[in-house]
Amino acid sequence: MNHQTTFAEKFLAEAAQIIAALDVSRLEQAAQLLADVRAAGGRLFILGVGGSAANASHAVNDFRKIAGIEAYAPTDNVSELTARTNDEGWATVFASWLKTSKLQARDALLVFSVGGGDVERNVSPNLVAALQFAKSVGAKILGVVGRDGGYTGKVADVCILIPTVNPSHVTPHTEAFQAVVWHLLVTHPAVKLEQTKWEATANASPFYEAPSRAVFLDRDGVLNHAVVREGKPFPPSTLAELQIPPGTLEALRELKAHGFQLLVVTNQPDLAKGLVKREDVEAINRKLAATLPVDEFFVCPHVDSDSCDCRKPKPGLLLQAARKHHVDLSASFMIGDRWRDVEAGHNAGCRTILIDQGYQEKHPAHPPDATVRSLRDAADWILQTKTNGAVR
User: Fold this and answer.
1) Which of 2, 13, 155, 193 has the fewest CB atoms within 10 Å, measured from its CB?
2) What is the dihedral of CA 118, 186, 20, 49, to 10 degrees?
3) Domain extents for the chain?
4) What is the pLDDT of residue 201?
5) What is the pLDDT of residues 270-311, one digit of tens each?
């Protein structure tokens, strides 16, 4: 007797086909875009109608709580939404909401929609108007949509299309996979900052991994020579200018052998100034990562006037790295060659080491725990401190 396929089996088989057909490269692009928005101090506005509006509300919670991104959904404010609909009409409610919220170029929109918006067919015209406004101010646009993506698919910087495997089930699959996609994004290592509840609860088991120790490292003047002009340090602008001091590799290998994670935290304000290209900064980081046993690079692309949380002397980069790598800051060290590094380490709760390169600049307000002449000396000081029992 032949087995008759049930509806549940067919529906789940369709879901499996969708997972297999999702564009993985676009998912990775979306994760990086979100990480860049957060690094720039931008906000995330999540738009959806109907079931997608409920998804938007849930996603706002996850992006705020897990990813540390300031996120909002206009549909969460029913009073404003209905007032604008009554007074202005449905088609402009999202665009007006975004104008009042002063949407900026460093912000992003995330659209959850089955059709993606289509003015000609009068399908979610409010999404179309919102996207047009976002384009006018230069905000980034992400979409998680079904069918052909509609207007969202045409204008988004990254559009994740939920493939149609059964035309009769476009809506349920699209709205279900919106949840799959946003949960993937908030869990992505480039985006996730905070542990989720049940995973944190699991850490209370006998298999709980104790917080690690780390050595946070500035890049220019620590891992590689800074370019010094008139007594002031500057980063190498191209890979051709990169020079790694003798003994750097050996010093880092010893720190690694003693159980320290090696996390690079670097200010790169020339990105914001337009003096260097992002690809040149990334090429230098890749070369250093290929040559030295560092675990990850964390980059602040801002200048002081951006008032971000990640530019040293603020501790944001260290805190971000510590959350991601489960680091005990009180058992960790910050090595830098400038007052900004020492202050950032102090503000994060680390012990601090200044490599004195003789720059003509101000001294840190909080004196470093040690002042040395090289990374080799800094590593020796850390290992001696560890040997003396001062580091857990």
Assistant:
1) 2
2) -20
3) 7-197, 213-387
4) 59
5) 999 999 999 999 999 999 999 999 999 999 999 999 989 899
In 93-111, which positions are buried (b, 16+ CB within 10 angstroms) versus exposed (e)? Answer: bbbbbbeeeebeebbbbbb
DSSP secondary structure of 324-346: HHTB-GGG-EEEESSHHHHHHHH
Is residue 218 annotated as a catalytic residue, yes or no?
yes
**Cα torsion for 33, 38, 40, 46, to the nearest 10°?**
70
Residue 390 token pair: 């001062």
Rounded Cα–Cα distance for residues 204 and 299 (Å): 32
In the set 62, 107, 218, 341, the catalytic residue is 218
User: Do the Cβ atoms of 337 and 232 come closer than 8 Å?
Assistant: no
The DSSP secondary-structure symbol of 161 reads E
Give the integer Cα–Cα distance in Å for 256 and 249: 11
* Amino acid at site 15: A
- For residue 242 the two structure tokens come to 């990169």
Sign of CA pseudo-dihedral 344, 346, 348, 353: positive
Marked catalytic residue, from 62, 107, 118, 220: 220
Q: Do the Cβ atoms of 244 and 223 come closer than 8 Å?
A: yes
How many Å apart are CA 110 and CA 71, to the nearest integer? 10
Whether the pLDDT of residue 254 is over 70: the answer is yes
Q: How far apart are CA 8 and CA 193, in angstroms?
A: 36
Q: Are 7-197 and 213-387 in the same CATH fold? A: yes
Any idea which fold 213-387 has? Rossmann fold (3.40.50)
Quick check: 130 and 109 in contact, CB under 8 A?
Answer: yes
Span 17-60, pLDDT tens digits: 999 999 999 999 999 999 888 878 899 999 999 999 999 999 99
220 is catalytic: yes
Return the CATH number of the domain spanning residue range 7-197. Answer: 3.40.50.10490
